[in-house]
Amino acid sequence: MNAFDTVHDDAEDVAHSELAIKQHPVHNDDRECSFHRSLLLRISICARLLAFVFLRLAVHLPLFDASPHLVDVAPSALSLLRWDAFHFLQIAQNGYQYEYQWAFFPALPALMRGTVALIPQSLRSTPATDLLIGGAMAAIACDTTRTLYLLTMHHFGTPKLALLTSLLSTLPSSPATLYLAPYTEPFFTYLSYRGMLFCAHAQWLPAAILFALASSFRSNGIFLAGFLLWGMLLSPFLQERRIHLSTLSYSVVLTSLVFSPFIYHNVSAYLTFCTHVASYHPQWCSNFLPSIYTHVQATYWGSGFLKYWTLQQVPNFLIAAPPLLLLYTFSTYHLKNALLPRLSAFIQDKPPARVQDPFLNFSLTPHAIHAFFLTSTLLFASHTQIILRVAASMPFLYWGAAWLILDYPSWGSCWVGWSVIWGVLSIILWATFLPPA
């Protein structure tokens, strides 16, 4: 907490300066930035070690579900086998055997199989153990704090604020799945951040490739295509009132690249279930858009518009409330005070007014739109508590937390306190196989 207090005192003096609102800042103190990145690496390692220690202590508590003991897994990896990790492990071992497994994308199981080769033969154990440890090793290597630092520096130009934001990211709402477990979140978050950083520098092709890789881990990666559309089409149109045909064509190609893993996953399922000669084909094969993913989500996982809005799910809504409220509040604040005035000026053919609040920097607008729509999807058409895992993939969450600390210190303290308490509690719940999943 002392580190947060120190950064808050320093950042408050500079965060609202004119320098902070420049979109392409000049890095006046490379030595300070280098020190910050080195510090963040050490803090990130310590955060993972702390999460590991808490997990090792919590595994001695009674299990709510004894399913992990039914799998041939060494005790050292048993704490990694919870919730969706069962499905990833089964797919990594045997491929897609059942229809419900198609709710999970193939990148993580493939990565788990690939990382087994990195485990020395002398340290090998059972196949399931090796796959779980291989996936966990890869997850641990996905450190996003320094990428978030660079991204924040680009948008705000203030090292102290970049450090504050990155420190806040070391307090995720699901440390077990982000730091330790063979889950999609660490890879999806890392690839999303890197792609966003390339977008910030108008390097569209590498950004599209990284977003496509992110989409191969999670279906909501298709939302990342919005950053390409914003940077290549919408933002230039708002500034220049025209769109070049070559840029439009190129954006369509790159956006298609981001969608390609989702399309490939569904086409593979269609070829598996719907093209062979048989007396029976699944009903979804006859749909206008025969998507196994939407079918499986609706049939096996109960996803769909307002389907999760039942009385028995109220506890999950309450658990997910802090990140939901922060994302909605901050995105609404930004869109109302940054995007709407810009659109009004565009319609009236006037130059946009200059803003003094760094959190209203127009370069943050695609992040605000992305956060708003992704949060709305999770709230209204999904298992809402998933926001606890997915929120870390949105830098906008941590910029919102920094906004609270700088502009509303009491609420900022509440956020940090909740992050610490819930982070520890979520590790205990994970270890004992209790929800939220």
Number of domains: 1
Number of helices: 18
Main β-sheet: number of strands, strand sense, barrel status?
none
By helix and strand content, what is the structural category? mainly alpha
Q: What fraction of the residues are assigned to beta strands by DSSP?
A: under 5%
Protein architecture, described:
There is one protein chain. The longest helix has 34 residues. The protein is globular and about 65 Å long. The two termini are 28 Å apart. The chain has one domain. Helices cover 63% and strands 0% of the residues. α9 packs antiparallel against α10. 44% of the residues are buried. About 4% of the residues have low confidence. The protein is built from 18 helices and no strands. The protein is an all-alpha fold.
Keywords:
437 residues; alpha-1,6-mannosyltransferase activity
Summarize the structure.
The protein is an all-alpha fold. It is 63% helix and 0% strand. The protein contains 18 helices and no strands.
Please outline the helices and strands.
Elements: H1 2-14, H2 30-58, H3 84-94, H4 107-115, H5 127-140, H6 145-156, H7 159-168, H8 175-180, H9 185-200, H10 204-215, H11 225-240, H12 245-273, H13 292-299, H14 314-347, H15 365-381, H16 387-390, H17 395-407, H18 409-431
Helix pairs in contact: 1-7, 2-7, 2-18, 3-4, 3-5, 4-5, 6-7, 6-9, 7-17, 9-10, 10-12, 11-12, 14-15, 14-17, 17-18
